[in-house]
Amino acid sequence: GSVVASYPYDDSPTHRPTGVYSKSADDEVFKYLAKAYASHHPIMRTGKPNCPEEEAETFPDGITNGAQWYDVEGGMQDYNYVWANCFEITLELSCCKYPPTSELPKEWENNRESLLAFIEKV
């Protein structure tokens, strides 16, 4: 896990594991939506999730193009965009895939304003 808003494309023509910016036709819209979420999240907006094992990982403005971060062939957000014209971003909300129940109220507080800002864009 991490704390970042990722946007299409997750797959790239070269399928290199990382570092390839895979721009969609609606790249500016996706960046706008990802920033709308990230800019209201207290950790995401810093661009420094500080996840164990990945302390040096950074994301400018708390967002990333999926394939630039790591290439995923056949991902759901790309599939929905290409085949259903559904604009989807992926939100990584925690360094831990399964946070303990005791941390859920904090996660809600971290994400509440982001969710509202994102819904307003819809």
From TrEMBL:
Keywords, comma-separated and alphabetical: Carboxypeptidase, Hydrolase, Protease
Query: Source organism's superkingdom?
Result: Eukaryota
- Region Disordered, residue ranges: 1-20
Domain Peptidase M14: from-to ranges: 1-122
Task: Tell me any Pfam family this protein matches.
Answer: Peptidase_M14
* Gene3D superfamilies, alphabetized: Zn peptidases
The active site lies at: E92
TM spans, by residue? none
Q: Name one GO molecular function term.
A: metallocarboxypeptidase activity
- Tell me a GO biological process for this protein: peptide metabolic process
Give the UniProt entry's GO cellular component terms.
extracellular space
The record's family statement is: Belongs to the peptidase M14 family.
The entry's protein name is CBPD Carboxypeptidase
Record the organism.
Menura novaehollandiae
State the gene name recorded for this protein.
Answer: Cpd_1
